Amino acid sequence: MGPMDSGIRDVRAERLASGAYADVFSDLHPPLSRHEAFVESDRCYFCYDAPCMNACPTGIDIPLFIREIAADNPTGSAKTILSENILGGMCARVCPTETLCEQACVREAAEGKPVKIGLLQRYATDHLMANGQHPFDRAEPTGKSVAIVGAGPAGLSAAHRLAMRGHDVTIFEARPKAGGLNEYGIAAYKSVADFAQKELDFVLDIGGITIHNDKALGRDISLDALKTGFDAVFLGMGLPGVNELGLDGEDAAGCIDAVDFISVLRQSDDLSQIAVGRDVVVIGGGMTAIDVAVQTKLLGAENVIIAYRRGPEHMNASDFEQELALKNGVIIRHWLQPRALTRNDRGEVCGITLDYTNMADGRLSPSGESITLASDQVFKAIGQTPAEAVLTGAGIALSRGRVSVDDEGRTSVPGIWAGGDCVAGGQDLTVAAVQDGKIAAESIHRTLMQQPEKVSGFVEAVMTTSADGTPLPEHRTIHTIQVVG
Ligand SMILES: Cc1cc2nc3c(=O)[nH]c(=O)nc-3n(C[C@H](O)[C@H](O)[C@H](O)COP(=O)(O)OP(=O)(O)OC[C@H]3O[C@@H](n4cnc5c(N)ncnc54)[C@H](O)[C@@H]3O)c2cc1C
Ligand code: SF4
């Protein structure tokens, strides 16, 4: 008898033998040895106008850093990488290289076997971080201060670049730990051994960056206060909400937000205590759907099915990610969309009914047939939503709830920049958030350095002296003058 017949849900911790967790959650792409790095770097043609470099959102000089590895200069190689992407260590672990640099590699076109750019990047950055030295110096202090909202990849990248340019940076982060989805979202097998916090410490080593954790914009601080108290503001709040399925019973036990589940998993220091169902259904077709499906399977769920409403070619998850799921025993079923949750007499979710779909004239619609699957846990992984409420009323132009920015990351409000997942039209990738932060930081720097310095006593002098230098009578004192700076 299945759980739906009995209404009994089988959700348990400790599905694996206690020693098995470390093994199954080990590094997805183990690092290259020195010898392997030499062999791999030797495969690179050091192409002129290299297509791999053009495909990297942060524009890392890939042939140069590979050449530096080949010349046994991994420290120089890491500096080449980090000068464009300060989170190059994390990106080496999480970038979907199969759709970025490695897809563009000429060896991929010629032999279907690209140079392992991601692993080489990891080799170099791991080497540099292991020696504990920060590779960049701060410029002379500018006396300018910048507030950053959100300590995810976008915020940290902006903070590092601004600190390097000599500005003082203060980050306000809603969560107890900094790192954003690097700390709370990325699959556990992509970022092992607390790498997100190690990389955070590495970034902060530049100096000049202060992080206030547990301080949320809209709850503990206002945009007005940030605008008044700082010379510029950068918004990097990511996408804090999640899309709902729109079904009855969605808030019942057993219907779970995938991003929340992953964040609990990422913060756990004992994976054996994370309870998973025997039968699991994941709704979605992106990276989050793959990640939650693979991780529940690794935690010991017997049957994990991803249900996606369109075909494989429409999935946001790359071919590599889809294969990863299949290799781990996850079943991906296409052309299915959720219709109703089944609940037991305690109101807990124990199954889901899905409509088969088809596409006609570019429109997706139910075919009239449906299927009901037993499911101890139904995971929602159909996308995240922006922090619209926090920004409403601030005068910042939004597009579908995300912040509209120009190509320098400037919002419609002077003095406020934004980047990463919270802005409209982005790629929703770690590496893209890093690039946004870097571009916005350079724009902020240019803007702040063009502004006239505050002149001590200037306001008082103007407000109390007439054009010929004689003191103004009391009633002619000008009260409205504003001085930029
Ligand atoms: C489950 C999952 C897996 C993913 N896996 C990958 C992957 O393998 N590879 C990849 O390239 N990309 C992946 N991504 C996407 C990637 O993580 C994001 O694109 C990237 O983290 C965006 O960076 P960000 O700085 O814009 O936002 P975030 O990383 O979300 O950081 C935003 C920060 O702002 C804080 N914040 C939010 N609201 C406020 C507020 N009001 N006040 C103060 N602080 C606030 C948040 O707490 C958070 O720390 C994944 C995403 C998810 C959800
Ligand atoms: S495209 Fe491939 S072979 Fe050419 S420089 Fe880039 S990594 Fe090397």
TrEMBL record:
Task: Give GO MF terms, alphabetically.
Answer: dihydropyrimidine dehydrogenase (NAD+) activity; iron-sulfur cluster binding
The catalytic activity of this protein is classed by the Enzyme Commission as: 1.3.1.1
Q: Where is the FAD/NAD(P)-binding domain?
A: 145-437
What is catalysed by this protein?
5,6-dihydrouracil + NAD(+) = uracil + NADH + H(+); 5,6-dihydrothymine + NAD(+) = thymine + NADH + H(+)
Q: Name one Pfam family in it.
A: Pyr_redox_2
Q: What is this protein called?
A: dihydrouracil dehydrogenase (NAD(+))
Biological source species = Phyllobacterium endophyticum
Q: How does it assemble?
A: Heterotetramer of 2 PreA and 2 PreT subunits.
Question: Which segments constitute the Dihydroprymidine dehydrogenase domain?
Answer: 25-132
Keyword flag Transport: no
The alphabetical list of record keywords is: Oxidoreductase
Q: What does this protein do?
A: Involved in pyrimidine base degradation. Catalyzes physiologically the reduction of uracil to 5,6-dihydrouracil (DHU) by using NADH as a specific cosubstrate. It also catalyzes the reverse reaction and the reduction of thymine to 5,6-dihydrothymine (DHT).
Q: Which InterPro entries match?
A: DPD_II, FAD/NAD-bd_sf, FAD/NAD-binding_dom, Helical_ferredxn
